[in-house]
Design goal:
By secondary structure, the chain is of the alpha+beta class. It is built from 2 helices and 7 strands. The chain is globular. The model has no long low-confidence stretch (mean pLDDT about 85).
Length: about 120
């Protein structure tokens, strides 16, 4: 019986850790565009929760790896929200998923989902 309970215990509690989406909500304070492929976003008075693997917890990024259509839609949404003074919600992963910048491997938190 002890052996059975031990096996059940290991099965129930031996799952891999998975990333969870967390969100930061606020008005768009600043957007910076680099080489038309990377867009940095900062929210007013709201930096969101830090991600330990990402060295910059002030800005979010729409990464160059997303399709051009995806980047354009996110950028348009953020620009419209900025011009209207609307609040946006930026979702990102709480573990890893950091965008490299130059020779620095883990810098900005990648935007996974954007809502107004």
């Amino acid at each position: 019986m002890k052996r059975f309970l031990l096996i059940v215990f290991f099965i129930l509690f031996s799952h891999n850790a998975k990333a969870v989406w967390i969100s930061a909500t606020g008005k768009v304070e600043n957007m910076s565009i680099y080489s038309s492929t990377r867009i940095l976003v900062k929210l007013e008075n709201q930096n969101g929760a830090p991600v330990q693997a990402c060295s910059n917890n002030e800005f979010f990024i729409i990464p160059a790896g997303y399709s051009e259509d995806s980047r354009d839609r996110m950028y348009s949404t953020l620009l419209a929200a900025k011009m209207a003074g609307a609040t946006v919600s930026i979702s990102y992963e709480d573990v890893g998923n950091c965008e490299p910048w130059g020779v620095t491997p883990n810098v900005y938190r990648r935007i996974v989902r954007l809502t107004i």
